[in-house]
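Example record used in the benchmark description.
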Amino acid sequence: MAGDEPPAPIGLLLWDGEWMKTIRRQHHDGSLPESLGPALDRLAEDAVEAMEQPLVSVLDKQRVPPSGDKRDYYSLGIYWWPDPGKEDGLPYIRRDGERNPEADEFDRPQLARMAGAVEALTLSWFLSGNEEHGRRAIEHLRHWFLDSESAMRPHLEYAQAIPGRTEGRGIGLIETNALLPVPDCILLLQAGGLLPGAEFEALRGWFADYQHWFLTSSHGRDEARERNNHGTWYDVQASVFSLFVGQPEAAREILGRVAERRLEPQVNAEGAQPHELRRTLTFTYSVMNLDGFMRLAHLAERFEIPLWDHDGPDGELQSIRGALEFLHPYADPETASEWRHPQIAAVPHARLWSLLHRAVVVWPDGGYRETLDRLPDEDLLPQRFRLLHREAGE
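Model output (structure tokens):
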């Protein structure tokens, strides 16, 4: 990007482009608050690691999808394992919350690595001005989405397969949550003049094809009917991809139904999320689903749909804020042990902290700033979400 000033305005989807422009300007003129230094330092480390990462594609998986074409995305239902009582292990059986390492032989890890590298490199380029990082991000995008020999075909027919049971499932669509930062990265790279117009349109074309499949396929329709975190994240993805490919009315329609279709059936009068409390990772899935609701509320702002302050018919805790209040007491690692529901793996504190960070701006009277202030600086200050969403009072 030529010069110190980024293009303006930047119409990002999930990130706060104006806040990111402020950080970039402060970084270049030496006025960056000291508190943001650790997050930029951590990002720089992540970008150096991403620069060393080889390009990955769907061709890298060890398993071949039922179609016989490795360009088709293929993944394993991660909680499904060989049946020890069967010689061939078939059909696989479910062990909720226990990840089968066979999943690493499929596409999901490569998808996460590609998207993670694109995000780290794009943000490092945008905030620090390191053009080499931005160009490497584009190489990752070309290799995964555009190169004729290596590009993923825009569908998930074979996602979350279960050997002996099914070649793919609608709930596999949640795996492209990994792609949610990618449209914002593409928009930044295009606005900054690094991404040629033809490639920008080609990438939008890939997402347009995927969005069409996502909304109209049998797997897509199955996922849209899910009543737990899968339904929530279906709406997040459908909204983001629709906005990115220039279909705002499709996004408006989805977002306009969130309160009645997602929020009210999933959050009860105490702010609990009963569908997620049936799992073996109750805290993980409750935070994950709330993250989806907060992203939907952010997206809904552009259409003046008031999801942040929507209360269900069962009271004010049947709401996004109510769901946050249910989890808020356990944000501190010191109090997480008091959680009284099954949680067979480590508590994802940083993900909950990112939601509190957003909540400080939305509900400044909620005590969320005080909770964050009690956390050790070495844990909180390096978190990347502080670079993507405005700090309270700024």
